[in-house]
From TrEMBL, chains A, B:
<dbReference type="InterPro" id="IPR000835">
    <property type="entry name" value="HTH_MarR-typ"/>
</dbReference>
<dbReference type="Pfam" id="PF12802">
    <property type="entry name" value="MarR_2"/>
</dbReference>
<dbReference type="InterPro" id="IPR036390">
    <property type="entry name" value="WH_DNA-bd_sf"/>
</dbReference>
<dbReference type="InterPro" id="IPR036388">
    <property type="entry name" value="WH-like_DNA-bd_sf"/>
</dbReference>
<dbReference type="InterPro" id="IPR026282">
    <property type="entry name" value="MJ1563"/>
</dbReference>
<dbReference type="InterPro" id="IPR052362">
    <property type="entry name" value="HTH-GbsR_regulator"/>
</dbReference>
<keyword id="KW-0805">Transcription regulation</keyword>
<keyword id="KW-0238">DNA-binding</keyword>
<protein>
    <recommendedName>
        <fullName>HTH-type transcriptional regulator</fullName>
    </recommendedName>
</protein>
<keyword id="KW-0804">Transcription</keyword>
<comment type="similarity">
    <text>Belongs to the GbsR family.</text>
</comment>
<dbReference type="InterPro" id="IPR011991">
    <property type="entry name" value="ArsR-like_HTH"/>
</dbReference>
<feature type="domain" description="HTH marR-type">
    <location>
        <begin position="20"/>
        <end position="79"/>
    </location>
</feature>
Amino acid sequence: MSPLVRSFVAHFGEMGSRWGINRTVGQIYALIYVSSRALHADEIAEQLEFSRSNVSMGLKELQAWRLVRLRHQAGDRREYFDAPADAWEVFRTLAEERRRREIEPTLTMLRNALMEEAGSEEDRVAQERMRDMHDLIEMLTTWFDDVQRMDAKTLAQLMRMGSKVQKLLEVASKVTSLGSAKQAAE
Amino acid sequence: MSPLVRSFVAHFGEMGSRWGINRTVGQIYALIYVSSRALHADEIAEQLEFSRSNVSMGLKELQAWRLVRLRHQAGDRREYFDAPADAWEVFRTLAEERRRREIEPTLTMLRNALMEEAGSEEDRVAQERMRDMHDLIEMLTTWFDDVQRMDAKTLAQLMRMGSKVQKLLEVASKVTSLGSAKQAAE
DNA sequence: ATGAATTTTCAGTAATTACTGAAAGTTCTG
DNA sequence: CAGAACTTTCAGTAATTACTGAAAATTCAT
């Protein structure tokens, strides 16, 4: 492993452990991500100096996260793994998985809590806070769904605009049916 | 603690441990967040059945994340803690802290790696992947900065629009100087 | 200053999580 | 279908992380 790859892999190990992902899994992913070709488990074990079984478990987890893909090479029985190179795709996958694993269960818990009859003033306040949290999460995820549905071009355009979109919205509101009366008043 | 609060606290404990945050810290935060008034460390220790010192450490960490605020009550020497109730503010704080702790160091690492001379074809490919990742992260954070600078009204409007913003952008591009030639061609 | 009330630190221990090697399982080839 | 090539599982152990209680430090009132 070159020093370049080594530092990338090490950094991802550290970062992985700050997220729920464990260090070795982060390193395995990093190695596959920067690699120009698909790798098989023995190569990974050798390069990172992990046991073969550790690599096996790590790959299983990365597959569960859909961050790596299983590949087969003609005339070779071993399983090879590579990772999508498109960073935006990776980001999207991560977002989807986190949503499924963390966001959805949280929303379910909050909804259940909000269905309960508040037994006290304390509970009433608690429910109020939970409702705010629920509504924010729902808004953010709905919005993110919409963003995902946009094509890459629109998205890039929107991002490039940044806060200038504010101006655009102001203008837009003046030409929509709702805005026209307001425009006349101004 | 009512069953309502108990389940909220328990859930946050679980979720905390999936993020880098440890379980007890998650529970302490959850308790403070849903509470109608500021709490002091002994109350928290008693309610969650943690040792006083564990609570002390947890509060220190939550303060470092800027998720709780230290308060003083007149005529009481103890330190009370509460949490901002506005969910959007909480989200923003979390995003800022994660950025400082995780995103910025990652960008630094990537920039350093990209300054290095690639010593091999393998390194060249690795740098290419790192550049993609760097550019995506930078785009997302720049964009997020812009979003943060928007006022709440614009933001809500933008979110409510969701993917309909695509139509708006199409229209906008036709009335800008750059878009006018394109429009003529169509 | 004294000491009571409170918070923090930290060394030791408990609990959890990660990792390994050996064994079992699977898949393919001849 | 034997056995070679490869992957997975899992019980045991190592490493890490979390938690506690005792002691030290801080803060404040008198």
